[in-house]
Amino acid sequence: MNYPVFVIGCFCLALSACASPNAGNPDGDAYAGSPQSVYDVAAHPPSTNGTVSYDPNAPMPPVMPPAAGPSGAGMAAPAPAAGTRMPR
């Protein structure tokens, strides 16, 4: 019982040695906004376009009536025209 566990443990250890500790940033560049980053915050300041706010205590919006006309969700397929063959 101990031998298969040992083999699996060695396999996992060998496999973890192949993993890079920084796979998302292989060149080790600094991230935007941090010191020595390539992104210049002074030239391109962050903006908040279209900021959305959420009020959990706001009342629910009124319930709208369904749209006029059938939506097609509960409708059956139209019957084929007389004299036509049904596909198999």
Can you summarize this structure?
This protein has 88 residues and is mostly helical. The protein has one helix spanning 2-18.
Question: Secondary-structure map with pairings?
Answer:
Blueprint lengths: L1 H17 L70
Keywords:
1 helix; mainly alpha; 88 residues
Description:
- It is a single chain.
- The model has no long low-confidence stretch (mean pLDDT 74).
- The relative contact order is 0.05.
- The chain has one helix and no strands.
- The protein is mainly alpha-helical and 88 residues long.
Radius of gyration (CA) equals 31 Å
Distance, first to last CA? 59 Å
Structural class: mainly alpha
Question: Mean pLDDT, rounded to whole units?
Answer: 74
Strand content bin: under 5%
Binned, the helix content reads: 10-25%
Q: Looking at the chains present, what oligomeric state does this protein adopt?
A: single chain
**Which segments are poorly predicted (pLDDT under 50) over 5 or more consecutive residues?**
none
Describe the global form. flat
Which sequence of SSEs, written as H and E, runs from N to C? Answer: H
Tally the beta strands.
Answer: 0
The major pleated sheet works out as: none
